[in-house]
Amino acid sequence: MIGITVLGATGSIGVSTLDVLARHSEQYRVIALTGNSQVERLHEQCLQHRPQYAVMANEAAAEQLQARLKISAPDVEVLAGAEALEKVASLTEVDYVMAAIVGAAGLRSSIAAAKAGKRVLLANKEALVMSGRIFMDAIRENGAELLPIDSEHNAIFQCMPSDLSHGLGKVGVRKVLLTASGGPFRETPLEMLQHVSPAQAVAHPNWSMGKKISVDSATMMNKGLEVIEACWLFNTDSSKIEVVLHPQSIIHSMVEYVDGSVLAQLGNPDMRTPIAHALAWPKRIESGVSSLDLIAVGNLEFQSVDFGRFPCLRLAFDAFQAGGSAPAILNAANEIAVAAFLEEEITFTDIPDVIEETLSALPSRDVDNLNTVLNDDKSARAVANDIILRRAS
Ligand code: NAD
Ligand code: MG
Does residue 317 belong to any structural domain of this protein? Predict the structure, then answer.
């Protein structure tokens, strides 16, 4: 039996992960489930999957969960707080860790899993964006395995040779074609963008996801974070990454080789495919995803990206180029701006402005340890919050 911890079990990726695991309960044993504050959902998940540990990052929520489980499943040990996330990511009885907490909140536990030498199933792209070098070093130095869950990166992984330690050129890769749906506002008249509501922004045409990544998809910051994620995962600079709009989200990304071959991975837009792939790799298991009906899909379209419509994508390329802590600053400012947009404190088109102003207010620094990343994350949040307050007054 393979022991698994699901960090962020109550979220969109967490729920899809548990769906796949439930189909293979003879192979995988759930050791720990974690959530932030959704007591009801984590309680239900505990009853179904009977983990040894249930963690709530929020202490008050942990108390409520404890009170419920004391009666319904007293064998589940409830832990509280951010440190407990790191603990359940590193337990000896855990082989695999699904890192599916959203945002910088997942950084420490994702790195803890790498340091403990686990197979890390990485959905929490923000962790890699913030601390790419540190994260990749932790994987390598501790004999951990990194399997991408992000559908594009999982697709690229499936189309790549296994040894990338000498760079993409050495294995004949000419470029990576990172596909993007373009989100809900791909064709919205530009002058309307400042009036779009949070409800419109989170209504993704192809994928059902958490709110933060849905807004990121609408601004295309998600694709920007994914460019950075791809550079770290596949040991390349951003010049080899080309973003291609593909509105149907059927091709999840492609790899082009020097001989002109282009390999693609296709499938219905359902995260259970990359989750099942990463769980079983190098084998294959059923995921519950239905067969791809290409006749029903009919057409696969491709378009170039309009950087003017999606300034967040340019900001992400630039931050990666600047290096050091710039991607962490970009990520933190984005998290603050997206939260403010969801609270209707700023408009949709304010999001890139807040990020750009934050990046110009804070110089990027060399990153040699996690504290630098965490400090710059904190400073960027403060600066971004100030910018938002000033805009409101
Ligand atoms: P979500 O909002 O649905 O779930 C987030 C999870 O993180 C929840 O379990 C929540 O309880 C937990 N969480 C939030 N704040 C926390 C905190 N402070 N401490 C501890 N736990 C906390 O998000 P999601 O859509 O499942 O996305 C999760 C991650 O996966 C993100 O990094 C996202 O970019 C990535 N991802 C998601 C999808 C998708 O289809 N949903 C696809 C690709 C990548
Ligand atoms: Mg993705």
Answer: no
Pocket test of ligand 1: the residue of 101, 120, 130, 228 to mutate, having most ligand atoms within 8 Å of its CB, is: 101
Q: Whose CA is nearest to atom 15 of ligand 1?
A: 36
Q: How far is CA 214 from CA 155, 203, 206, 385, in A?
A: 20, 7, 11, 21
Q: With H, G, I as helix, E, B as strand and everything else as coil, classify residue 225.
A: helix
End-to-end, the C-alpha distance of the chain in Å comes to 58
Pocket lining: 33 vs ligand 1, CB cutoff 6 Å: no
In this prediction the pTM is 0.98
CA 348 to chain centroid, in Å, comes to: 21
Q: Are residues 114 and 215 in the same domain?
A: no
One-letter amino acid of 169? G
Tell which of 282, 297, 312 closes a domain. Answer: 297
Q: Is the CB of 8 under 6 A from ligand 1?
A: yes
Q: How much distance in Å is there from the Cα of 210 to the middle of ligand 1? A: 6
Whether 133 and 196 share a structural domain: no
* CA gap 68, 80 in Å, rounded: 15
- 389-376-337-233 Cα dihedral, nearest 10 degrees: 180
pLDDT in tens, 7-62: 999 999 999 999 999 999 999 999 999 999 999 999 999 999 999 999 999 999 99
Strand duo 119-122 + 145-148: pairing: parallel
Model pLDDT for residues 230-245, shown as the tens digit of each residue:
999 999 999 999 999 9
Q: Would you call the peptide bond into 282 cis, given omega within 30 degrees of 0 as the criterion?
A: yes
Pairing of strands 96-99, 77-80: unpaired
Is residue 28 in a domain? Answer: yes
Q: How many domains does the chain have?
A: 3
**Nearest-atom index, ligand 1, CA of 127:** 32
Domain boundaries, position 16: 2-148
17 lines ligand 1 (CB under 6 A): no
